[in-house]
Structures are given as structure tokens and as C-alpha cells.
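Protein of interest.
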Amino acid sequence: MRHGEAGWHTIDQQRELTDAGRTATGRVVHQIAESPWRPREIWCSSLIRARQTAAIASEILNCRVTEKTFLTPDDDPGLCLDALLEESPATRLLIVSHMPLVGALSTLLVDGHRQGIPFMTSQAVGLELPVVGPGCADLKVQFLP
């Protein structure tokens, strides 16, 4: 999931969700909650807008949130893949991050490359990942604001 719409700030890491971003995030997370893709755990970036998005999701989904250092906008999606391999979550996981990382991670998991696809703010996708590895996921569903 990409974080919700964020306002402007001179320091990128300090950007907070707008009211519209909070509303759109809530709509998307409610869609996820009513779907078979409801997660049991949330990983999020340490940046404020992602933490705020994850907090909204956590409240609606009743999941714990864990901040991960490798989920900021320009991080290598391979770091997230490595963490998935190491931690091997057997449960449904919601990852809340930023562009371009969410797009690059999605294409790494689905197609085995890092070119990336665009994500709107608050957009989420459901991937089925029977085996953790590049090109091993199937895109099953999109959740749009």
C-alpha cells in the first residue's frame, strides 16, 4: 500500500497526511477489511505519512504495526525481499510505503524486475506469494481510493 495523500513540508520526512489522505486511506482499508485479503500484521516506513497511514490501517484492521528501516521511498526493494525471506511471514502482511519503492517492490515480486509500476496515494494491491522470491507473486486484487 502506498501512503495516503500528504501535505507539503520543507523536510520531506516530516510530511503529514492531509484530511483527504486520511479519508482515502480509511476507504481503502475498509475495502481490505471486508475482503479475503485482510492482513494480520503491518510493516511500515518510518516516515510520518506512512506511519499515519499504518496507524489508520491498524485501527481498522486491529493489527500490530512494525516500522522497518528499509521501506523509505528510495530504498532498494531487494532489502524488503530479503526481510520477507528471513522473517518468512506465514501470515497476511500489509506493507505501507512510498513511491517509487511500492511500485518497484511489486514488479520485483510479480515480474522479477525493478522497473516499477505507478501507485496512486492510498492504493493497495493484493499479491499471492506462495514462495518468497522474485517473480513468484501473482497480482490478485487492487484496492483503489
Helices lie at 19-33, 48-61, 77-87, 101-111. The CA atoms of residues 77 and 83 lie 10 Å apart. The beta strands are 41-44, 64-67, 93-96, 124-128, 138-143. The chain has a mean pLDDT of 95.
